[in-house]
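Dear colleague,

Thank you for sharing your sequence with our group. We've completed the structure prediction you requested, and as agreed, I am returning the results in plain text so they can be pasted directly into your records. Please verify that the sequence below matches your submission; if there's any discrepancy, let me know and we will rerun it promptly.
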Amino acid sequence: MSSEIRQLQPQVLWNKFADLNAVPRPSKKEERVIAFMKGFGENLGLETLEDEVGNVIIKKTATSGMDNRTTVVMQSHLDMVHQKNGDTIFDFDKQGIEMYVDGDWVRAKGTTLGADNGLGVATIMAILESTDIPHPAIEALFTIDEETGMTGAMGLNGGLLSGGILLNLDTEEDDEIGVGCAGGIDVTATRTYEEEETPEFKIGYNVSVKGLQGGHSGMQIHEGLGNANKIMNRLLFDGFENFGLRISEIDGGSLRNAIPRESHAIVAIDAVNEAVFKNEITDLAQTIKTEYKTMEPDLEILISKCETPEKIMDLGVQEGLTRALYAALNGVYRMSADIPDLVETSNNIARVIVKNGKIKICCLTRSSVESSKVDLANTLRATFELTGCEVELSGDYPGWAPNMDSPILKVMEKLYEDLNGEKPHVAACHAGLECGILGQNYPNMDMISFGPNIKGAHSPDERAQISSVQKYWKFVLEILKAIPVK
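Please find the predicted structure tokens below.
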């Protein structure tokens, strides 16, 4: 209900967010939103360009009296994570996000909201369109594909931007000023296997894990949320060990940067063991639900009889797979020794696919320390190689090292305290931000990250706090007025 959203304050921001959310913008399919942003800039009569990888840059001159201030790069990414509830019928490639107001929050109907990073994009659009907001010269940088590879930031060439300060609007706590982030690397394990004919004495069962919260695989990796792929493997391992359960198919998780919420498997068991199998898996399911009752109260583990599958996995490969998935680390690997309460290194076992003689396991390993990132990636590599998988390490991107002497940080700390009567939380985060990558081609740019309260990012529970957006918008306006002279 975009009409309801368009009445929220500040209207200039929420209207731009509603415009943006009407445009499908999945990662790696950003053609429509790129065209939308180019049209937006050109219709305003502003210098607008698309670089060779698809990033859009829109430049606006300073308002009267601000010409002597440092040029500011305002940056957000155009793509969004696409997640939906299992019972939600929605086509992310064709439909705009359906939003509604829930008290002090804006949510979407059964899907991700796109506030990450759509509220940042909308903020910049509102500044570009404004005629009464004081600001220095602005270089608006809208990057692509942040969520699945950072390829927009990686492909941005030096020389396109002249700004001395970069404001990245991609932080999700309104009392936080970000000064650093984790880097990441994709770990992908694959192998083929021989399928066997399912013996006549076996019967088929569906096993499903669902109802988990999911969430951001960086910002929420330390919260103890359930990982559907790990829970499913625990069930299959137990069934194999005790009843000779055989796997036909597994389909678990979705995107690397989302903690997996659901997993589904088709298995075969000996008919003679059916009753005891059902009792055993029901007891184990209850044990797991009890373990997660605080963090995952809606967890469901369901089993139901189905048509017996025609094919099952090779026995030796299945044994290796279930052991490797049990052994592979998921969650926090190491906490930072230098920054209190910061996750240094982690891994998310994001996707497990077993079907038609092929296995694919997708992980995202993050760390703010390069050597620790490589160490964990190699740990996972060794685990999966021991079971005969080929392992590819790809999509490597650097972290962003904190600069506590940043001039714009000092300006923003004072402004925040003056506006809110308390000091901001200056922190590094365990998410991947584009600042570290952008800094490779723009090493002298002073960078900072901030934003409004967004909860449940990368999940259908994603929501943006209305009062926080109002607080954040006032902060943005004051920052632009306070940009120092060149």
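Summary note from our side: The mean pLDDT is 96.

Kind regards,
the structure core
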